[in-house]
UniProtKB/TrEMBL annotation:
<comment type="similarity">
    <text>Belongs to the peptidase M32 family.</text>
</comment>
<keyword id="KW-0482">Metalloprotease</keyword>
<feature type="active site" description="Proton donor/acceptor">
    <location>
        <position position="255"/>
    </location>
</feature>
<dbReference type="Pfam" id="PF02074">
    <property type="entry name" value="Peptidase_M32"/>
</dbReference>
<keyword id="KW-0378">Hydrolase</keyword>
<feature type="binding site">
    <location>
        <position position="284"/>
    </location>
    <ligand>
        <name>Zn(2+)</name>
    </ligand>
</feature>
<keyword id="KW-0121">Carboxypeptidase</keyword>
<keyword id="KW-0862">Zinc</keyword>
<dbReference type="GO" id="GO:0006508">
    <property type="term" value="P:proteolysis"/>
</dbReference>
<dbReference type="GO" id="GO:0046872">
    <property type="term" value="F:metal ion binding"/>
</dbReference>
<protein>
    <recommendedName>
        <fullName>Metal-dependent carboxypeptidase</fullName>
        <ecNumber>3.4.17.19</ecNumber>
    </recommendedName>
</protein>
<feature type="binding site">
    <location>
        <position position="254"/>
    </location>
    <ligand>
        <name>Zn(2+)</name>
    </ligand>
</feature>
<dbReference type="GO" id="GO:0004181">
    <property type="term" value="F:metallocarboxypeptidase activity"/>
</dbReference>
<keyword id="KW-0645">Protease</keyword>
<keyword id="KW-0479">Metal-binding</keyword>
<feature type="binding site">
    <location>
        <position position="258"/>
    </location>
    <ligand>
        <name>Zn(2+)</name>
    </ligand>
</feature>
<dbReference type="InterPro" id="IPR001333">
    <property type="entry name" value="Peptidase_M32_Taq"/>
</dbReference>
Amino acid sequence: MSAYENLMAHARQTEALAQIAGRLGWDQQTMMPRGANAQRSEEMAALEDVLHARRTDPRLGAWLEQAEAPDEVGAANLRELRRDYARHTKVPARLASELARITPLAQTAWEDARLAGDVAAFLPWLKQMIALRREEGQAIAGGGDPYDALMEDYEPETSSDAVAATFARMRPRLVALREAILGADTPPALTGHFAQDGQMRISRRLAEHFGYDFARGRIDLAVHPFSSGSGDDVRITTRVAMEDPFNCFYSTIHEVGHAAYEQGVDPAHALTPIGRGVSMGVHESQSRIYENQLGRSRAFCGWLHGAMQQEFGPLSVADADAFYAAVNRVNTGYIRTEADEVQYNLHIMLRFDLERALIRGTLDAEDLEAAWNTRFEADFGYKVDKPANGVLQDVHWSVGLFGYFPTYALGNIYAGCLHKTLRADLPDLDAQLALGDTTAATNWLNSRLQQFGALRGPTQTISHACGFTPDEQPFMAYLEAKFTELYRL
């Protein structure tokens, strides 16, 4: 076998094992009995030991020196393998194993602390996770910015300084739009009690309408919705609030966007380095365009209004237009995942600044809650009422996902660019969405982006799909046009 063939055989086995590790993580959040947590921690650490050994195998270095790419796909596989090998060989096996061991324990501690509203109970676990991830970032950065090193895991080819500059340009426009909206008349919210069984029936219909393949996936309930897996086994979760069905419906559509990307990658790339989404920012572009530009559009809301009437009977809102306004209602709230499109990125900017300070060592974990509460009040104009609505609301820090949060906002930016070209290419899209038919849009996204996986880098992936270099302008123009019309500004 050639060096390239040896690399690919090794990579396929490693990726298969990584998928098993991911399945264990899915199981922990959906099916695993709580009493199994300590054992699961050891199982995850043992599997990480095997994965780290494979990812740092000295043979990889020799093969990478000798390997020649047979074609464009081969060149992309080598790009990804070289990047991964360079990163993993800088992380000690002890550290990789300890991170895998502590993660299930820290996540359970977060779940308990969130339920009890007890920040102090979670702090020891948070401090351990910050210390371990900071050590990892420092090892990878080699004297550079440890936060940038961690962020590269989720969004290669960018830096926190570049992200901060983008946020600085967006922030004044977001704040101005929010203030104008909050000064206008607020449309009525949807009210009522919506049974779990009915919500889950509509949730499944939504997944099907957005192209989710249930032969290769399933929907379950979780505390924090997520998507897991790739190729022929991609699972999603959602959550149910009896008084807020939109929480369930739009969590489902969001996670279907992630899942569609993974299910849509060319099967020829399965279990290879490019057989997955290229970055979390690009991944979020899919979940956000599914959820917002398509799922919250006036046309699709008309179909969802009818579906909800069929399931639950008459609704509290007057008609389809009032339903659309309720779906896109801008109002006060604490929870990022429930935030409207206008304020969502302000939630991300808060988290980005705080987690960068934690990893850089300019903010201590003991001061995080106070820093969060102070920043939240400054940004949103009202005080956090309880930890579950503040510093304990997100799962990310409990599982060490430092550097992940900015990819949500980058995903919105990328989605804005994709939506601009999508609308130009599909001028009759609204007529189809009004029937609940997203096929033209989802097929367009698959043909332009999803099928290629990580064939190209993140920026090149978006540029190839939309025809221009991405920036925040299309997204901001979309927001301003949509909400100016909706709120008659």
